Backbone:
C-alpha cells in the first residue's frame, strides 16, 4: 500500500516529511477558527431560520442603524467585506424592505443608506434573541476566559494591531 502508484506521498521532501509527521490539525489556529466560525454560523442559522437573515445582513442593519446615511463603500469597510458583495447584499435588503437607499445630496453617484421600517421590525425581533446566540457561542469557555478570548480575537482581526503588545 505504501508503494501505491496513486500515492504521491513518496515524493514529499525529507524536510516536509518531518513537518508532516508531527503535524496536528487540531493545533492549527486557522483550522480551529474556521471550525469555530462554522459552529457560530450554524447556531445563528438554527436560531433565525424563521427570519431569513444572515449574520452579515444583521451586521449591515446594525451598522446602518448606528450610522444613518452611511454610503455603501463605508458600509463595506465597516463590515470588512468586498464592495461588490455589499452592493449585492444592499440590493437584496432594499428589495426586502429592510434598508432604504437614497441618492446622496453631495454625490449623485453615491447612495446613503437608512434603516427601513421592515429593518427596524426585524431588529426588534432578532436582537434580544441574538444576545442569547452570542452567549451560547461562548458557553463552552469558562466564564472568566470569555473576555480574554474576545480580546484575542480583536487583536487577531484589528488591522491597527501589530501584535507586538498585549495590553
Residues:
Amino acid at each position: 500500500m505504501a508503494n501505491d502508484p496513486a500515492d504521491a506521498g513518496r515524493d514529499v521532501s525529507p524536510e516536509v516529511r518531518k513537518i508532516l509527521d508531527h503535524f496536528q490539525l487540531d493545533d492549527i489556529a486557522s483550522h480551529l477558527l474556521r471550525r469555530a466560525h462554522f459552529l457560530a454560523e450554524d447556531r445563528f442559522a438554527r436560531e433565525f431560520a424563521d427570519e431569513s437573515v444572515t449574520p452579515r445582513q444583521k451586521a449591515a442593519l446594525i451598522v446602518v442603524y448606528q450610522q444613518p446615511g452611511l454610503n455603501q463603500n463605508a458600509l463595506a469597510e465597516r463590515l470588512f467585506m468586498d464592495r461588490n458583495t455589499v452592493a449585492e447584499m444592499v440590493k437584496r435588503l432594499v428589495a426586502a424592505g429592510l434598508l432604504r437607499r437614497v441618492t446622496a445630496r453631495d454625490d449623485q453617484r453615491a447612495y446613503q443608506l437608512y434603516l427601513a421600517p421592515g429593518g427596524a421590525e426585524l431588529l426588534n425581533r432578532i436582537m434580544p434573541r441574538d444576545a442569547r446566540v452570542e452567549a451560547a457561542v461562548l458557553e463552552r469557555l469558562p466564564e472568566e476566559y470569555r473576555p480574554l478570548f474576545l480580546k484575542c480575537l480583536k487583536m487577531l482581526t484589528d488591522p491597527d494591531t501589530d501584535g507586538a503588545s498585549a495590553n
Remarks:
- The chain has a mean pLDDT of 92.
- The first helix runs from residue 14 to 21.
- The beta strands are 70-71, 99-103, 111-115.
- The CA atoms of residues 2 and 9 lie 9 Å apart.
